[in-house]
């Protein structure tokens, strides 16, 4: 079979596109396949980008200003809607026009020389010579699975799979003006968002409101309408119009094992590279995609036709896994409401949201000791 590419990337996700671009820049022939006909449709992410992820995106090209909107702080609410403002000078988030951001990323991939093939499913591959014969693609030397939390690539090659999830849903609305539009509004409510939070923020041309909860069994969902009804107590939603909805699984069990095999590597959500505590994954997706490209380029440079293994460093998330376990077991609305009033919860929340100091750093404990 004629060789189609050095590298096949499955999934035009943040991780997949970053990997494809960096691999092409390294001189590899890259095919990127995506099952959707439009990379910006049917998304499963809020598109909130932390400062570190914004820096990673900048490596791929200058972000168009009309696709992003800075968010400078957080307002955290307890179950009774008492709240506290959280700020960290110099730190920011970016709200993004996520559908058009994904289309822009795909344009960057094409400009880098990636062979992008939309409406193309990964339906399997057979080992053949120094690589694989891939259905609907041809012969490739290496495969990258960037195809989300229920990765078909992982299952096809016996790699690790995600087993612990949050289920999230978000609505894009018009006709809503939030107070403090420059903040990310986050809500603790065990009944509506068990094991996680709800959120609201002014996005690019829309207001985005959503929530996620621990998925204890397959099929568990969340009640967005009940959350909107609760928010109507503090936000004016009388003129709201829902223009889009998105929903999906968020892996929170930590990195899968194994993440790699002979000529196969997982990145992003497929690899479980999502913070077990915050469920943030765009930064690690971009970072893992870029690292994977360089690891693959190095491994293929000495390819003699035998086994080829490319690996990347993955975060352990040990402290965040412990905190995730504690949050799952001991999330209690009344206690969080009390801690919110004392300021202790605000200190802990700053450490989680702003990433400026480790959760268990000396400076963090000094802050707690002052209380």
Number of strands: 18
The third-level CATH topology of the domain at 3-72 and 90-163 and 253-301 is FAD/NAD(P)-binding domain
**SS content category:** alpha/beta
The CATH architecture assignment of the domain at 3-72 and 90-163 and 253-301 turns out to be 3-Layer(bba) Sandwich
Average pLDDT rating:
91
**What would you report as the Rg, rounded to the nearest angstrom?**
21 Å
Cα end-to-end separation: 68 Å
Low-confidence stretches: 356-365, 367-371
Count of helical regions: 10
Characterise the protein shown here:
The chain has 371 residues and is an alpha/beta fold. It has a domain at 3-72 and 90-163 and 253-301: FAD/NAD(P)-binding domain (3-Layer(bba) Sandwich). The chain is built from ten helices and 18 strands. It has helices at 14-25, 51-60, 98-111, 152-156, 224-231, 282-301, 318-330, 333-342, 344-354, 362-370; strands at residues 3-10, 30-33, 49-50, 68-71, 73-77, 83-87, 93-96, 115-117, 125-127, 132-134, 138-145, 165-174, 183-187, 198-202, 207-215, 241-251, 260-261, 264-266. The strands form three sheets. Strands 1, 2, 8, 9, 10, 11, 17 and 18 form an eight-stranded mixed beta sheet that branches. Strands 6-5-13-14-15-12-16 form a seven-stranded mixed beta sheet, sandwiched between helices. A hairpin with a 2-residue loop joins strand 17 (260-261) and strand 18 (264-266). The chain starts with a strand and ends with a helix.
